[in-house]
């Protein structure tokens, strides 16, 4: 039975399906065993494309799976019940790799090839019934791999805030989360994201210039519209 994963798309972690794109995800976790990271093609209940289990089998073994293919790493106590451990996972073309630390491609533990990792768009995390604490970076994945749901920055409207027809506002850790929020609201036609204050506001209209939106210059605020 498929595990219940916490999907990180709600925090803006949505990746492009792009050949030659090196995408990666870093995290810290504190748990006694059974840390699970799933890489998915769909943001739904569909099965994972890849599965990483850290500290399985009583914190004695880890595994990276892709369908019937499995690669194991035999090491006791890779996780710690009382302190955070740092890990990374990356994928590019036909290679998925996993390692320890804050810098991806250093201290690699596991890798698997030939399974088309550019199918990965979404990430889910889980520890089953085991108590765990996670630290996920409050920043978007690499820009060249990051899907902003088709939105684009309006030319000449960087560092600009609009004031007309604001229909909602939320806090957002990154641009992708802001774009996803707007996409899910049928009335949202454009938005302003402030990357300094981590705020996002949606508008029910598209504005061609600063005068039309009754805007003003505001450091860190950028106006986005559909292409």
UniProtKB/TrEMBL annotation:
Record Gene3D superfamilies: Hepatocyte Growth Factor
Membrane-spanning segments: none
Pfam families, per the entry: Methyltransf_FA, PAN_1
Annotated InterPro entries: Methyltransf_FA (IPR022041), Pan_app (IPR003609)
Domain called Apple: residue spans: 145-227
Protein name: C3 and PZP-like alpha-2-macroglobulin domain-containing protein 8
Species the sequence originates in: Mizuhopecten yessoensis (Japanese scallop)
